[in-house]
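Question (not urgent): is this output format expected?
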Amino acid sequence: MKKMQNSSKSLSCALSAVALACFAILPQIANAHGSAAQMVPLKKIANEAGGTLKWDSYANVYTFNRNSTLVRAKPGSSTITVNGSPFKLSAPLVVRKGAAYVPHDFLQQVTQSSLDRTFVVERTPNPLNPLSEEEIKSTVEILKTSGKYQPGYRFSEITLRMPPKEEVWAFALEGKKVTTPRTAEVTILDGKHVIESTVDLKAKKVTRWEPKEGAHGMVLIDDFATVQAAIESSPAYIEALAKRGITDIKKVVTTPLTVGYFDNKDGLQQQDRLLKIVSYLDVGDGNYWAHPIENLVAVLDLVQKKIIKVEDQGVIPVPMKATAYDGSDRKAGTPPKPLEISEPQGKNYTITGNSLHWRNWDFHLRVDSRVGLSLSTVTFNDKGTKRKVMYEGSLGGMIVPYGDPDVGWYFKAYLDSGEYGMGTLTSPIEPGKDAPENAVFLDATLADFNGAPATIPNAVAVFERYAGPEYKHQEMGRPNVSTERRELVVRWISTVGNYDYMFDWVFSENGTIGINAGATGIEAVKGVKSRTMQDATAKEDTRYGTLLDHNIVGTTHQHIYNFRLDMDVDGESNTLTEIDPVVLPNTTGTPRTSTMQTVERTVTTEKQAAQKFDPATVRLLSNTNKTNKVGNPVSYQLIPYAGGTHPVAKGANFGKDEWIYNRLSFMDKQLWVTKYNPEERFPEGKYPNRSSKDTGLGQFSADDQNIVNTDNVVWLTTGTTHIARAEEWPIMPTEWVNVLLKPWNYFSETPTLHLGGTAK
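Got this back:
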């Protein structure tokens, strides 16, 4: 990951382009040394550099904002402010014909002022930094010269192999050098076969080459083109379209869907690399999702690159009503008045390479090609001591299962990260819309299916926000005591087909960490005969969903997320404990007949830890070797459901005889705790595509290891049962679910007391 246009080099390059483009129209004024200064339009500099420019006529000030730098300048003055501090330009800002002009090296001067301290040069590279462009290229070159590489190989993953945990913690806390060499892990697709490889980047040699029997790799981006080409050359599919009155195959839009596993009941051979194709019709409204070609499914062999089967359950007319999802077919409403978020003195956080420091928090962040945003070495500075909270946290995996048994729906249970790679499908974040004005944006570099490095702009947004009062108390006759709560948000978005998923990691100064998962985008809908609920066909058409529009049903489904949280609460020796509030008789003789008490117990093994979540029970990951000042063990509370805007998915809505239960266990229990194993990373297993058995959490916990006073990983499952409603069509407002990690006797007092008083 790299910051967006914030190095001096990138700034200089942008500046040069601007200066050359503007050279013909440069006015000249005298600079401080008496010679003529070349002047360029500030608006053009802002546009070229990706910044914003605003004019405040009341204050007579131009405000230039670019990522983490805020500049204010008045016409006629050479003194500007950069993040609240004064700085003198080589020549004053001038206004000519209503346009502001500044010296041609304006950006360079601002950068060299050193008044923007948000981004700091990384002196010693963090061992968890993702592979750079050069390292990705080197990995592929080493493979190609090893004698093992064959033409036609494709890459589903080229990523950093993490060094040993103890070495990384020693680096993060003590600055000790990591001795393990930088190593790349590579997953290669050879037709329908999968090969795993490891490359030592220092020694420049392949240290492992292992074919994986029975594994199916991810769906890759170039498979999308294969799918489209296959239907266009399939006589059987073209014939099925003709039955529906569709004669222009170029207007048919395909979706590449994984087929699942049904113990051969679907007639598909397990060893084949297959996709199913469901299609939509492009009618020119920009929203093909609103025009499903229902009851028609094609099966594609990705190795042969041809359709091997067409399933046609009968003609349902394609819904043809134009349905633009962006509101372009509506009369524009009155735009809101501007809402400005200003940080006139700069940011309260610093980013050094891939490491972020905010208030008492420090952590490392990167984007992984499979699970997306991953945070590591999370610590909290408690009165001068950096205390461990979490070694690594990320989305582990997720599933979106649908409840309709029809031919075009029964197989739909997408494992978005494990089958498609959600990091690869990262969606660039739009400033001012997907994230607020005050956000800083970071790019990410990942390897594509050819093994070439590809940069995703604005892959991550970082911003601070007001989040209500941290605390307040009004004592009668005394001054009010209150202080604001600030939160730091790290946001990442992935677009997987019709849905866009937003993930926020939210840090509070009181030690709480929130993980918010939001779903937006366009619902996958089914074409039906019914126009309204009064039609004779409506009851049957809506058996598995909600009628959203004329001839359109939103099918009931679920969004189930699992987060892998390698918690190290004040150290690696942790224990899962539970506290239940109970009602017991009053034996003291006072008028009360009952009392509220608590019962505490220790969960000793992995199988005991795998459980449905009862919100009445307090679940803690505790370090019983360390206590706060009164002797309570330091802990973090684990809350998989901390609120949400859709019905909670208390488990998977399937019968227990469904084959999906043989493949996946994580979706049906909200809490899992397993003994740390660096190879156990994905709740659905490493290769879930077409898997016939659970190689994830079900397998990880099968040996039922002891988890008392050990290094443990917490897996929290959360999600929603998505019952469609009219207000979500034709585009769905973001719906959130929330996970919470909350300190529980981790501190000895309210950790934000310093915010409410005057330091002594």
